[in-house]
Amino acid sequence: MSLDKSTLEALEDVYSKLKAADKPVLVYGTGNGCEKLFCVFERLGIKPQGIFTSNAFARKREFCGFKVMSLDEAERRFDDFYAVLAFGTSLPEVMQGIDELDKRHKVFAPELSVADDSYFDKYEFLDDLDNVQRAYSLLSDDRSREVFEGLCCFKITGELKYLRKIFSEPSEVFEDVLKLSEKEIYCDLGAYKGDTVCEFLSHTGGRFKEICCFEPDMRNFRACVKNLIHLDRITFVNSAAWDSDTKLFFANNSGRQSAVSDYGRLTSARSLDSFLNGREATYIKYDVEGADRQALIGSRDTIRKYRPKICTAVYHRPYDFYQLPLLINDICGGYRYYLRQFPYYPSWESNLFLVK
After folding, report:
1. Total number of domains in the chain
2. pLDDT for 226-266, tens place per residue?
3. Which of 164, 192, 220 is where one domain is finished?
4. How many other β-carbons are positioned within 10 Å of the β-carbon of residue 125?
5. Do 191 and 78 belong together in one domain?
6. Which one, of 343, 87, 342, lies nearest residue 351 by Cα?
7. How far apart are alpha carbons 292 and 286 in whole angstroms?
8. What is the C-alpha to C-alpha distance for residues 260 and 252, in angstroms, rounded to an integer?
9. Could you tell me which of 118, 56, 70 has the C-alpha nearest to residue 323?
10. Who contacts 277 (Cβ-Cβ below 8 Å, separation ≥6)?
11. Which are the contacts of 203, defined by CB distance < 8 A and separation ≥ 6?
């Protein structure tokens, strides 16, 4: 089975659409996402005409050289406009508000990297279509192929309609694909404050054999220990998951997007293979803010020897959704691949699940 190349080629990419816009282009949201978007716009010659926020978050301030408007102000000032989303959210009420806005004014969500300043480029993507097709052929069910196709269309066009069609709830994957048991030896790489351990426990009835949590951000690490220290047979590792044992600069944002950086606090980094030293893992989760490739490489001996169940984020970099499946297949063939998109604008909750 393969993707239809002609269909992908025919889709108008979001940046071409915005550059040739027949109505004003307004950026929705401020902060780091807005700054990244303005950098891409400057490189591509796209000229936004303003910034707005939801009415509840409107303040008298300036950002990136523009007075920040409320949504009401933007709608009074501009009869119609294109709204370009510059933040991410999984909050149902915020997503509903974005859906309502999309009915009145077209909303676009360009695919920007969570991990760095790169962005999804349609033509770079199409130039690598052979590898895209290889990754697509690995997928094990129709739903995964639908999700993959939807992600391709969304990343090219920036149109939210393609995401809405492919949303599913995490519980479906845990029940239908992972089927976790009380015998799991779980390695949580990117444990944050312990929320994914709690999710894991909710699907095993609170029972497990062992748990290991990797979390490099010191504030998050302390919260993780505080939240989970009551559990027996749990180990906490204040290190980044990497492909070797080393030291890395780490930008401590005390949030989910704390990441390896060119600056910040010098932090311990370890490979999972080194930490386990030949011991078994039955389930590994990777959510390491752009270091997913390195963390997978640092687990290759464990993966080859024990073939654990795997959950890995495939959204931190624009092409992860097809490049990381190929990497895992190179490390160890024979897995079944399931791709799912959980509700989030933009596609920041694309996850790949692998089972024997």
Report:
1. 2
2. 999 999 999 999 999 999 999 998 765 544 455 566 656 78
3. 164
4. 20
5. no
6. 342
7. 6
8. 9
9. 118
10. none
11. 174, 175, 178, 180
